[in-house]
Amino acid sequence: MTATHTPHSRRALGSLSVSPLSLGGNVFGWTADEAESFAVLDAYTAGGGNFVDTADVYSAWVPGNKGGESETVLGNWMAARGNRSEVVIATKVGAHPDLKGLSAATIKSAVDLSLARLRTDYIDLYYTHYDDESVEVGEFLTALDDLVRAGKVREIAASNISAKRLEESLDFSAREGLARYVALQPHYNLVSRDTYEGELADVAARHGVAAVPYYALASGFLTGKYRPDTPTESARSGAAAKHLATDCGLRVLQALDTVATTHQVEPATVALAWLAAQPTVAAPIASARTVTQLPALLAMTDLTLSDAELTILTEASA
After folding, report:
1. What is the mean pLDDT of residues 66-81?
2. What pLDDT score was predicted for residue 238?
3. How confident is the model over 234-261, as a mean pLDDT?
4. Cα angle 70, 151, 13; round to 5
5. Which of 313, 308, 278, 125 is nearest to 198 (CA)?
6. 3-class SS at 12?
7. What is the Cα–Cα distance from 167 to 294, expressed in whole angstroms?
8. pTM for the model
9. Where are the beta strands (DSSP E) in the chain?
10. How far is the C-alpha of 178 from the C-alpha of 144, rounded, in Å?
11. Nearest to residue 116, comparing CAs of 75, 88, 148?
């Protein structure tokens, strides 16, 4: 996985073939109701996307929700469209309020509930949502391998894991001949580079694990809609606005504006294209609450940044 991706090319995650932009499903059943979610999913797939990311915990943090709402919306959409075989569905285990952690029993209960909500008999990519260091890697990897052998899961992946535990997990799978992590979902973007670059990225590169970064747009900050002295109201404005208080955040906005103007695209498009060009990165994740937010995200598949432009952005974010 290098910066030589051609536009619209699929990227390999183990046996899976995914589009270069993964659509985040965290908003489904939260800030986007079912009708809005269906519209976004339709527009994303019409635009060439095939890789949707969700989790069993989405969106348990909303008053009145209990987790699983996003999977339910996604399952209803696939049933309505009859397109299950055309989309790559990623979901996660370990953070649902009723099924926390990575014990074998928890994983086996959680997967069946996810399958039921998704109205499918298999999950394409199944992530351990947060590492559970109280559980030996051998326990959860054996449980995940059982799911792969049973046909319930096609490939497995990790999110929110240390370099040490990722290496330990990959070594265990290799030694025991079990399913191995093919992807890693780190927190990674232009204003949060140390959350991935360094030891964790090195382990991924060494073992050929593809990165699928979340918070690719830093809770919306990298869309450019948050500016000094410009109030913006949204569910995520607090998380985004904090970057306005840093020199790095302001430098990155300026660099994004410069490159975006050159290509006549949105800052979000440039931020995603920078991420997609980084070593090991296969497909950044970004969510759209409305169809109008989607074109700027999908446009990243047509934007190839020059080495000079990549350098401008990289140096601004240092």
Report:
1. 98
2. 74
3. 88
4. 70
5. 278
6. strand
7. 36
8. 0.94
9. 11-13, 16-18, 22-24, 51-53, 88-93, 95-96, 99-100, 123-128, 153-159, 181-185, 210-211, 285-286
10. 9
11. 75
Q: How far is CA 59 from CA 26, 63, 67, in A?
A: 7, 9, 5
Task: Point out the catalytic residue in the list 44, 58, 126, 130.
Answer: 58
Nearest to 288 by CA among 20, 127, 52, 17: 52
**Residue 233, pLDDT score:** 65
For 307, the enclosing helix (H) or strand (E) is helix 307-316
Token pair in block for residue 19: 């589009």
Per-residue pLDDT averaged across 103-127, rounded? Answer: 98
Question: Tokens in use for 174?
Answer: 């290799």
Cis amide bond preceding 59, omega within 30: yes
Sheet architecture: strand order including 210-211: 210-211, 181-185, 153-159, 123-128, 88-93, 51-53, 22-24, 285-286
Closest CA to 56 of 145, 146, 142, 116: 116
Q: 10 Å Cβ neighbour count for 279? A: 13
Q: Which two tokens stand for residue 304?
A: 């190839």
- Give the C-alpha separation, 28 to 81, whole Å: 17
Residues 6 or more apart in contact with residue 317 via CB below 8 angstroms = 190, 191, 193, 248, 251, 252, 255
- pLDDT of residue 239 exceeding 90, the answer is no
Task: Using only the alpha carbons of the chain, give its radius of gyration.
Answer: 19
| 305 contact partners, CB below 8 Å, separation of at least 6 | 259, 270, 273, 274, 277, 313
58 catalytic? Reply is yes
